[in-house]
Every structure is written in structure tokens, then in C-alpha cells.
Amino acid sequence: MTVCLTFDLLSIIGLFASVLIGISLGLIGGGGSILTVPVLVYLFKVDIVLATAYSLFIVGFSSLIGAIPKHKQGLVDLKTALVFGVPSIIAVFITRKVLVPSIPDTLFELFGITVTKALAMMVLFAILMVAASISMIRDKKEEATESQQPRVFNYPMILLEGTVVGILTGLVGAGGGFLIIPALVMLSKLPMKQAVGTSLLIIAAKSLIGFSGDVMENSSQMDWTLLSLVTILAVVGIFIGNLLSKKVDGSSLKKGFGWFVLAMGIYIITKELMFPGASSH
User: Fold this and answer.
1) What is the pLDDT of residues 36-83, one digit of tens each?
2) Which of the 8 DSSP states describes residue 248?
3) Can you give the residue range of the structural domain that contains 166?
4) CA distance 158 to 87
5) N or C: which end of the chain has fewer CB within 10 A?
6) Quick one: pLDDT at residue 226?
7) Number of domains into which the chain is organized
8) Per-residue model confidence as pLDDT tens digits over 249-266
9) Can you spell out the DSSP letters for 163-219?
10) What's the pLDDT score for residue 44?
11) Are 273 and 71 in contact (CB under 8 A)?
């Protein structure tokens, strides 16, 4: 399935939203990826399974571009990225190559609602949005205290968290920065700024490798024009976000963005459960 990109009102809003994806990644190191699938599904009318694949590329490529200046500033911990990233990369590749294609289109019936693969993926995604929003809204003072402690790697927990984040990334196409950053701060004792930079590198590696699993299976269905356009706009947003991060208080913006993501997550859960099938294309 391909998407015919026409410049109606929804797609124009989608183009602006694509820039916001990058701004959020550049500004707060996460959160932007949680917007990518809803933007693709609701504004560009992309099939949900294909949208999760597109999201992996958009988020992965944008994060890679965003990680480069962070690395030059010494804000990327390569050792931590490797320990966390390897199990995450393996998990996301297997999830996209094996698990997602094996999920049947119709899962089961519940209270008269036919639970389809598309519905289950959107609801799971919305639940993650709510989890992400809570992570962004709540006060992070305890994490700042944690980061002052000596560096001690909790390897089993880092490996486990990396695997879990990889599976979730593969299923819903989110970068998982809202899960990775707290894990890096608490389990690897990274300072917040270094956790943000390291997170971008991990997101880039696992998302792009996960996307490669989709390319092998679905390259003929992909609308490369739409994918390229949204990616370019997200990259533009990354640069804007990096500039803004030097001038704007990130913590208050993060909280405001968290409330926005919470509203989006509740909207998606309500829409998908009350009008199931409306987003299937």
C-alpha cells in the first residue's frame, strides 16, 4: 500500500507536526517519536503497521543527526550506549522481522468489539503515550540526585530494560526515549544531559536496524516520497530544537509537552475503542 500525498488541510498540518517531532527530540531528547505514529495515521492516513515502520526510520534518522552534535560536545557515553543498545537492537529487529508479521489481522472479540491487529497496536501505542506523558510531567528531582552518585553499572537491569524497550519499539515504532532516559539516569548514573545524548544514539541504532527488517518485507508498499519528506522536516526540527535547548528552559517545556502527549494518548484510546476500525486503511 502506498500513500498518495495530497496537500489538503490534514497533510499540511501533518507537515508542521513533522517539524515538531524533530523539535521535541532536539529540545528534550525524547517525546517527538511518540507523535510520529499518530501524525502518520491520523493526518497522512497511513496504515498503522506501515506507520510503525515509517516511524522507525523517521525517528532513527532524526536521532542519528541529533546525536552528532551531542557526541562532539562529549554528551554521548559510548560504553553505556553499547551495553543498553545491543539487546535493544536484537529485540527490535526480531520483533519487526518475526513477531509483527506473525500477528493475525483479527485477534479476538471483546464486549462486541472485534479487536484487530491495527486496533491493538494503536491502543498499546496510546497506553505508552500516557506512560510517556507521566514520565515527562512528574518532578525529576530524585533523578538529579541519583546522577551525583558514583558510576556503577547495573548490567542485568540495563540488559533487561534494553530488551523490553526494543520489543516495545518494534511493536509500536516509538523511539522509547521516555523509557531510555530515566533508565540511563537511574541504572547507569548518567547526568541528565549525557543521558539525553546517549539516548539519541541508542534510539538511532535500534530504530534504523528495526526498519531494515521492514524494508526486506514491505519495500514495495512504502511511499518513499512521504517518508523522505517527513524525515527531512523532522531533521529540520532537530536543528531548531538543538538551538532552542540553549535558550529555553527545557524542564518547563518538557512538562507542557507531557500534558499535550497525555491529552493525545487519552484521545487515541477513546477514539479507537469507541470507533474501532476508523483508522484502518
Assistant:
1) 888 998 899 898 888 888 988 998 898 899 889 889 989 899 988 988
2) S
3) 9-274
4) 9
5) N
6) 93
7) 1
8) 666 767 777 787 788 888
9) HHHHHHHHHH----HHHHHHHHHHHS---HHHHHHHHHHHHHHHHHHHHHHHHHHHG
10) 92
11) no
